[in-house]
Amino acid sequence: MKKITLIFASLMLMIVTACSQQSATTGSTGTAAPSASASAATTAPQAEKKLPKVAFVYIGVPGDGGWTYEHDQGRLMVEKELGIKATTVENIPEGPDAERVFEELAQSNDIIFGTSFGYMDPMYKVAQKHPNVKFLHATGYKTLPNMGTYMGREYQSAYLVGMAAGKMTKNNHIGYVGAFPIPEVIYTINAFTLGAQSTNPNIDVAVVWSNTWFDPATEKQAAISLLDKGVDVLAAYQDSPASIQAAAERGVWGIGNDSDMSRFAPETYISNPKWNWGPYYVKTVKSVMDGTWKSEAYFGSMKEGITDIAPLGKNVPQDVKDMVLKKKQEILDGKFEVFQGPIVDQDGKVRFEQGKKMTDEEILGTTWFVKGIKGVIPK
């Protein structure tokens, strides 16, 4: 019996020893534990941030030399700094086509930027159906938890360019070809006029509407209608250089929009408001990547770099350039507000008393012209 017990004990010792040796070479699941190099290879890809899929929808083409060109420059900055290859869809009209494009893009993208005011409602509809996709709309005012808006204080740039226009006119008659009668265009024309009045109280600004964003033929005809009335400085809000080209043909000073348009009329070019979307696009995509993105109505300033003025033309006198750049510095330093009373509308009504500043909501809801503007805002 003792002999049997001894044999049994020896067998149990062998089993326990074998199990101990096995546990040293297996993981908790009973499978072989990975080596240090294998473990590093497994965890390395998990440590890398997943790059989001990003899409841009353009109202025109980058070759417009203006609005879409500057948005596309922003897209290129995103690709360069973040290593993302974005999708672009060009020449998408506002309306049903835009809704279809947004719906298609939402199937395979994480972030979608729409770059025209008329994309607002189509994007809003699609965003409601795709809560996991981030939608960003330029110049609109509707938001959702997954849809934000973005715009810059272009009126600051317009004021500065208006100052130069007031100095450059000889007959005090300035023309402005408006795009669409929406608040962003209206308050930009107002700021331009206030800037011109600050350097020449005798000016008036005649406004006509093209009802286009990019239609060179239509925009040129609208410009000609103002040139025929004798304006000697011509500004425009469209994405094309058609208006300043028409002005150059008559030897009239021209002011473009969105991007540096000096190359289209070098001898008669004054300047124009200029966009710089890249920093905003990079910041927004980064915030999505790191999980800090929140829907907002972004309204960036010249100090933030989203808007500026193009270099003043080579034939603009140096004293005019110095004057404009001095005022620009005041804006950057927060020492000057464009929309601060007294502000009187074209019917003579005091809209804002002396010293009162317009709020962002009031600026973004502007539907009236300031005193000194000749033209009507269609209902």
UniProtKB/TrEMBL annotation:
GO terms for cellular component: plasma membrane. PROSITE patterns: PROKAR_LIPOPROTEIN (PS51257). Residues 1-24 form the signal peptide. Residues 53-333 form the ABC transporter substrate-binding protein PnrA-like domain. Pfam families: Bmp. The keyword Zinc-finger does not apply. Keywords: Signal. CDD domains: PBP1_BMP-like. Gene3D superfamilies: 3.40.50.2300. InterPro entries: ABC-Purine-Binding, PnrA-like. This is BMP family ABC transporter substrate-binding protein. It comes from Paenibacillus sedimenti. The lineage of its organism: Bacteria, Bacillati, Bacillota, Bacilli, Bacillales.
